[in-house]
Design goal:
It comes from Chlamydomonas schloesseri. Its EC number is 2.7.11.1. It catalyses: L-seryl-[protein] + ATP = O-phospho-L-seryl-[protein] + ADP + H(+); L-threonyl-[protein] + ATP = O-phospho-L-threonyl-[protein] + ADP + H(+). It is a single chain. This protein is of the alpha+beta class. The chain has 2 domains: 104 residues, Phosphorylase Kinase, domain 1; 160 residues, Orthogonal Bundle (Transferase(Phosphotransferase), domain 1). It is 60% helix and 11% strand. It has 9 helices and 9 strands. Strands 1-2-4-3 form a 4-stranded antiparallel beta sheet, with helices on one face. A 3-stranded antiparallel beta sheet has the order 5-7-8. A two-stranded antiparallel sheet has the order 6-9. A hairpin with a 5-residue loop joins strand 7 and strand 8. The longest helix has 44 residues. The radius of gyration is 24 Å and the shape is globular. The N and C termini lie far apart (68 Å).
Length: 323
């Protein structure tokens, strides 16, 4: 199950992350159960895991792997399990090698279900299976995150690839606890939710961009074939206004993945709200985190526009001086 490897602990940060990400997991049978041997990170960070219960620091990463090392990841997964959140079980850890034997969860990532929903919506399918599965996943994930946050733990790496839907019952399994830490601060939990929303929207934007690129390539191939068969017709098509007609479907296709991701996150919040004892504080901080992200994006766009305007003014002055 290649999609589960990274989520169950394979590190992807830094030089050690590249090594761990390229390293194939070893499938074994551990006490009669299917398992994976994966790399989580050597050691326990500075002080051999002395800060594993606190917010991870960048200067406390293990030699290769998660911040805080293998101890931090294993303890975070164990804590989540005790809180009632489904995670891959950790059967055995080796601190010296940084490798752990974990449960081989049969399932698929949340992102695959979102992609199925986009494909179903674009095809106009009326089966509704992907929509029903997505609604159930949103409700289950909202309850799981409420349990995790109310228990004083922040995941820190939520995304479409770190949430698995288990085969058979579709239960939500949280994975990839490399950035997890303990916190009772509402802002940390709101940031956790906002990070999930940003990750889903980023994946939706990337998918929409890939679809638009494929559509443009298909149109270019069609135009080339038309030009080869009928040069006069191709010339008239280039002079006409056909590009505007093609822009509308492209814009609609671009917004569809983002609409589905946004709707999923709102349904997740609707499930998180009644399940969390700290919803009021988290909700207020979530609005603050969202506003902060929007303002930072607006400032970046304004800075880009200002720099572009400055460049054009300099060019105009240079041209006037030469004339």
């Amino acid at each position: 199950m290649a999609g589960t490897v990274e989520a169950q602990g394979g590190d992807t940060s830094g030089a050690g992350g590249a090594k761990a990400a390229n390293e194939e997991p070893q499938r074994i049978t551990f006490l009669g159960r299917p398992a994976l041997v994966v790399t989580l990170g050597t050691g326990g960070g500075a002080g051999a895991g002395a800060r594993s219960h606190k917010r991870p620091r960048h200067d406390e990463a293990g030699d290769e792997g998660a911040q805080g090392g293998i101890r931090q990841v294993a303890r975070s997964m164990l804590r989540a399990h005790k809180l009632g959140v489904l995670v891959p079980l950790v059967y055995h850890t080796d601190v010296e090698s940084g490798r752990a034997t974990v449960e081989d969860v049969a399932g698929r990532p949340l992102q695959a279900l979102l992609d199925d929903m986009v494909a179903e919506a674009e095809a106009g399918s009326s089966s509704g299976k992907a929509a029903a599965d997505l609604d159930a996943a949103a409700a289950a994930l909202g309850r799981a995150l409420a349990l995790l946050h109310d228990g004083g733990q922040v995941h820190g790496g939520l995304g479409g690839g770190s949430v698995l839907l288990r085969e058979g019952d579709g239960a939500v399994v949280l994975t990839d606890f490399r950035r997890s830490f303990n916190s009772i601060v509402a802002l940390d939990k709101a940031t956790d939710l906002a990070g999930l929303e940003a990750a889903l929207l980023a994946a939706a934007k990337a998918k929409a961009g890939a679809q638009q690129q494929q559509q443009q390539q298909g149109e270019q191939v069609g135009e080339q074939e038309a030009a080869a068969s009928a040069p006069g017709a191709a010339a008239s098509a280039e002079g006409g206004g056909g590009s505007g007609a093609a822009a509308a479907p492209a814009a609609a296709a671009t917004s569809k993945p983002a609409e589905i991701a946004s709707a999923f996150f709102e349904k997740l919040l609707n499930s998180y709200r009644p399940s969390s004892r700290m919803w009021s504080a988290v909700h207020n901080k979530l609005a603050e985190v969202r506003a902060r992200g929007t303002s930072q994006g607006g400032q970046g766009a304004s800075a880009g526009a200002a720099s572009a305007g400055t460049g054009s003014n300099k060019k105009a002055k240079t041209a006037a001086a030469k004339s």
